Amino acid sequence: MNCDPIARWYRWLEYIGFGRELERRRIAFLGDISDARKVLVLGEGDGRFLVRLFEQTIQKPMKERPMSEWPGVEIHYVDLSLRMLELARKRLEAAGHTGDAITFQQANALTILLPRAQYDLIVTHFFLDCFNEAEAAKLVQNISDAALPHARWLISEFRQSAVGWRAAWAWLWLRLLYLFFRVTTGLRTSRLIDHHCLLLRAGFRLSRTETARFGLLVSELWVR
């Protein structure tokens, strides 16, 4: 999914639909990953989370410890949308965050060549829901090969409730969202996949989880 057509308005479209709840889902477990040193971020969007991640993993440790005791952090941000990458870069600069700690790369997550066993933190916010089952399996395997044995995986996603009025409410929201992104970005998939079985197969286990909007939104922290 290439968000170039809606990149300029993405933030406001998100606020109209969900207020700041999606932002709260993204940062729910930031305090748990402040010691990350090599981070892979896929499809993060316009940089709002990237700024918070930079402050948590780079700026905060530098203030708390002298440079001689502070190991460098590298953040590798990959997005298919060039406009989203530009927005993220500008947002970081506007926040006063510059330097070589973050590498921006325009690439398809399904075909990108990642270094083997390099990253101790993976971040995919509202990203896995853009793929069908075969694509998601390929993606998770590719990321798993690039992750260290002790890596963590930070995920925010939509979720389809199983029963009751919450199920009907979630179904309606998801139908509308998939229709919107199909029309505006050419998104091909039309339903959520179960990423849990894929991560479990890759050696990760669910450590923490939080839900919001009657179970429609979820934040997860997985550990290997």
Structure description:
The chain has a single domain, classed as Vaccinia Virus protein VP39 (Rossmann fold), CATH 3.40.50. It has seven helices and seven strands; from the N terminus they run ααβαβαββαβααββ. With 224 residues, it is an alpha/beta fold. The mean pLDDT is 89. The two termini are 28 Å apart. It has a seven-stranded mixed sheet with strand order 3-2-1-4-5-7-6, sandwiched between helices.
Strand-helix topology:
Blueprint: H1 10-18, H2 21-26, E1 38-42, H3 48-64, E2 74-79, H4 82-94, E3 102-106, E4 119-125, H5 133-146, E5 147-158, H6 164-185, H7 195-201, E6 205-212, E7 217-223
> What name goes with the CATH superfamily?
Vaccinia Virus protein VP39
Query: What is the chain-wise order of helices and strands?
Result: HHEHEHEEHEHHEE
Instruction: Detail the poorly predicted runs.
Output: none
Shape: globular
